[in-house]
Amino acid sequence: MSKVNLEASSRPRVFKSHAAKRATSRRFMLFTDFTSTLEIFAPRNPKESHWSAVKRILRYLKRTPSLGLWYPLLLGFDLLAYTDSYYGGCQVDRKSTSGSCHFLGGKLIRWSSNKQNCVSTSTADAKYGAAANCCSQALWMQTQLRDYGYTFNKIPILCDSKSAVAISANLVQHSKTKHIDIRYHFLKHNVEEGHVEMYFVNTENQLADLFT
Q1: Contact by Cβ (8 Å): 81, 138
Q2: How far, in Å, CA of 96 to CA of 63, rounded?
Q3: DSSP string, the chain
Q4: What is the Cα gyration radius of the chain?
Q5: CB count, 10 Å around CB of 186?
Q6: Is the alpha carbon torsion for 117, 142, 82, 111 positive or negative?
Q7: Dist. CA 58–CA 24, nearest whole Å
Q8: Pairing between β-strand 196-200 and β-strand 155-159 as defined by DSSP bridges
Q9: How far is CA 176 from CA 37, 127, 171, in A?
Q10: Digit-coded pLDDT (tens) for 158-173
Q11: Is the pLDDT of residue 126 over 60?
């Protein structure tokens, strides 16, 4: 069910007491298979249809208590990130959705799904913006792990957009890049400094697609 369908099928009466609690608690729920869905079901003014949709998620959780993340031992200690975006995914305001996931030693330690702050003008714009957000999280992890004596250089960030990868290495002013917000250009700076490295990955192997 899309956000636009939820809004259209809702009556004016809101269910703030129930939906607000679920919207708040969702940020502490450690589930990867419906992270992007929760972003749709947590509006500022939840209506009856939103609450009905949340109950569907709760029924799903009740049926799948045995599903979880697997953290095997001795798989190395490398930091790796995947980034993706859903261009114009929101049918209401046409903003794109950024998705990312980070692995440490082959183990999933962080994932996110967030609507971008501004409307992207191209797929490359949306992908590059998502990669910039993913980069900031990777650098934060790098800083935290450095306190424990671990050093990471050129953290790999995998993206399924060749245009976004190319922009991170060499920004060329053309129709696809001239609208990219300046706040995203710290990604290119960190690539130049050797803190992260952008790589292309096929869509079939893009793990962050789950979060868009």
Answers
A1: yes
A2: 31
A3: --HHHHHHT--S-B-HHHHHHHHHHGGG---STTHHHHHHT--SS-BHHHHHHHHHHHHHHHH-TT------S-S---EEEEEEEETT--TTT---EEEEEEEETTEEEEEEEEE-SS--SSHHHHHHHHHHHHHHHHHHHHHHHHTTT----SEEEEES-HHHHHHHH----STTTTTS-GGGGHHHHHHHTTSEEEEE--GGG-GGGGG-
A4: 19
A5: 14
A6: negative
A7: 15
A8: parallel
A9: 29, 11, 10
A10: 999 998 998 888 766 5
A11: yes
Per-residue pLDDT tens digits for 31-58:
565 565 556 555 556 667 767 777 777 7
Query: Please, which residues bridge with residue 103 across strands?
Result: 80, 108
| Separation of alpha carbons 156 and 137, rounded Å | 13
Residue holding tokens 């994932």? Answer: 111
Pair type for strands 79-86 and 155-159: parallel
Distance CA 15, CA 45 (A): 8
